[in-house]
Amino acid sequence: MPASEIQSTSKRASNSVLTLKPPYLIYVGDETRATYAKTGAGIAYWRKDMCLGQFRNDVSAVDFGLPDLTLGEALAQGAGSLVVGTAQIGGGISEALLKVAIEAASNGMDIVAGLHRPLSSIEALAQAAAEGGARIIDVRVPPQDLPIGTGQKRLGKRLLTVGTDCALGKKYTALQIQKDMQARGLKATFRASGQTGIMIAGSGIPIDAVVSDFLVGAAELLSPENDADHWDVIEGQGAIFHPAYAPVSHGLLLGSQPDAIVVCHEAKRTHVSGWPDFELPSIKNVIVKNLELARRVNPNAICVGISVNTSKLPAAEREDYLKSLSDQYDLPCVDPIIDGTSSLIDKLV
Questions:
Q1: Running DSSP on this structure, what letter comes out for residue 165?
Q2: D-glutamate N-acetyltransferase-like N-terminal domain spans which residues (predicted)?
Q3: Among residues 52, 196, 239, 277, which is most buried (max CB within 10 A)?
Q4: Strand ranges (E), 102-173
């Protein structure tokens, strides 16, 4: 690709990828249920260095292990964004959250959320942001003017996490691989393709909200031209065998042009979550089909390992289960949160 085209592509990528302003004040409010505070928990776990503190209305609320700060204290310490770390059933916005967000925005703090209802649609909040010079960033809303895919090869290396199903560890696997790569001194960047991942990374594109014609183009922008020895570790979405979400997985796979894939699975899961009439595909089929599609745009794509969420396995069975999968597929097989991903990286490099 000519240098002028590379510069043009890089500029377009920087304009199209959502970028958040740290440090974060994570909004918890009065949420006491960990299930509805997973976004905040993920940010605090993976990017504690980007978090200034947490805003809780009561000490009984979920605790992310961050300093408890009032809004005034956070502003005085230079907080860049109020990040909504919780979600309500139905995607609603509480009066308590709205009050805090309006005050934060009027004082210049960006408001960041991944709720189903865009915060930018709330007139009072939009007005406060305009007056305070703040941005309202609804991370579920993709950037405008995304291009269609080109299929052109880009400099740099890419690894994509793929899965047998949704919600079984693709994001956490990618984050752990990036962390372990950097610990080895390798150049590596986590590329976020979902709302929580974007908040953790501080940038990204919500791939599952992109119009289908532009999925591949968005994925290409998500992982732009880079140094020849640099690895982009791309957060996967959905699963190519999923009865509802396969299209986004297919588009992300083609646009990522991965040099390597890691297959993610959850031990003991036998059927597609939420679709009980559909059995999960075998790991073998997932490897074969993902590589077949990936090699359409990168003939050298390989599978370097299997990542398993073993949280539902008895501890005594975990090691034998992983060894059995490793022997069956002749690939390293790990639970990334327990074991790390060194064996996957060994296979990769």
A1: S
A2: 63-142
A3: 239
A4: 110-113, 136-138, 157-163
Number of domains in the chain: 2
Q: Domain range holding 241?
A: 157-348
- CA-CA distance, 262 to 243, in Å (whole number)? 21
Mark whether 339 and 190 lie in a shared domain: yes
Cα 78 → chain centroid: 26
Q: What is the largest CA-CA distance in the chain?
A: 61
pLDDT tens digits along 187-203 = 999 999 998 999 999 89
176 and 115 within one domain: no
Contact call for residues 296 and 284 (beta carbons, < 8 A): no
What is the spatial distance between Cα 15 and Cα 143, in angstroms, rounded to a whole number?
A: 8
**Does residue 168 share a domain with residue 134?**
no
| Residue 163 sits in the same domain as residue 283 | yes
Mean pLDDT of each 10-residue bin along the chain, 349 residues long: 42 66 96 89 93 96 97 97 83 86 98 88 96 95 91 96 96 97 97 93 92 96 96 97 96 98 97 96 98 97 98 95 97 97 95
Nearest to 237 by CA among 163, 140, 342, 332: 163
Q: What is the pLDDT of residues 61-108, one digit of tens each?
A: 999 999 999 999 999 999 999 999 998 655 668 899 999 999 999 999
Three-state secondary-structure class, residue 254? helix
Short-list 325, 245, 331, CA closest to 291: 331
Distance CA 15, CA 316 (A): 49
Residue 183 sits in the same domain as residue 290: yes
Same domain, yes or no: 133 and 167 = no
| Residue recorded with tokens 């009050």 | 99
Two structure tokens written together for 339: 């074991």
Residues 215 and 317 placed together within one structural domain of the fold: yes
